[in-house]
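Contributing new records

If you add data, match the layout below exactly. Sequence lines come first and carry their own label; structure lines follow with theirs. Keep one chain per record. Anything else will be rejected by the validation script.
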Amino acid sequence: MMVSTKGRYGLRVLLDVALHEERGPVALSEIARRQALSQKYLWQVINPLKKAGFLRSTRGTQGGYVLARDPNAITVRDIVDVLEGPVALVACVNDPGTCERSVDCTAREIWSEIEAKVVAAMAGVTLRDIVQRHKDRAAGGGPSYVI
């Protein structure tokens, strides 16, 4: 499974909004500029995030985007599910009908266990965690390699 640009950009958009919304709604043009992303492409990311209830928009000269949910209530799994669909490492885990051996397949069982761990890891990281990590790095709290 590889997360596409849509999923990666979605996380970056939500992080950007979370970091800058204290000054009011965040304009799409500002997100695009700060993240060095195409504003046109961001529409394909913003719309599903709005529809899923992660973002709320306001119109007008002071318009833009704000989080519609608390950052603690948005996980990486939520973002990936909205923008990429459910996590699927191999097709037979979520759709046993794709393989005639899936009912009695030890390999499928292993893939299922691995997929469950990946999903749990993604569900364990919230937007609030990512915001805090970003702030820690900006404050010089990143890894230190000094001995």
